[in-house]
Amino acid sequence: MAGLVPAIHVFIPLKSWMPGTRLVLGPAEGRTRVPGMTAEKALLSRSWHLALMTSPELEKDLRAAIRNIPDYPKPGIIFRDITTLLGDARAFRRAVDELVQPWAGMKIDKVAGIEARGFILGGAVAHQVSAGFIPIRKKGKLPYKRVTIGYSLEYGIDEMEMHEDAVQKGERVILVDDLIATGGTAEAAVKLLRKLGANVLAACFVIDLPELGGADKLRKLQVPVRTLISFEGH
To answer: Which residues are catalytically annotated?
Structure first.
């Protein structure tokens, strides 16, 4: 029929697929299927969103492993404490496995982690995909020649840094942190990596607070976003 785009089927290798997950591929607007799109192109194309949904059982397990602390660090905020997840060997392993699942079997040169909990998760992810690890740190914490970028906080400006030789031009990098809220820190990290010539394949987070819009902010930078669970509110 005129005006319709033919549907395609994308086959994912078994080693790249985990039971209980489903892959949804579609463009930024309308999710119209594009003919001739291979699995890797679909996952990495800058005009497509990656939406790989975790199973209800996994989400339930991860939620149960995260401690919620009301009115911290200030009244009205619920702090999502992942130290309990990190202390649960099974939950920690499942979270790491799920974060890297979409890129199983693909070439990843480096994993970048944002200080501080991103170091824990990012190091585990880097080990899992046999990649190097890049620490993105607060200003003044790195000893060698650095590249710096500023970013906005609720009540001011802060800066983060990387060593200037941490990534080579064209290297394929995945960004990892525990949570994405407003997205200011993650957005700055993406821009810092790109400043050094990195190809940022995706950004991965255990927790998303979608009402704060951080994940959408990264998608506007053409960065696919992978999150495992979401919570309402702040």
So the answer is: 117, 154
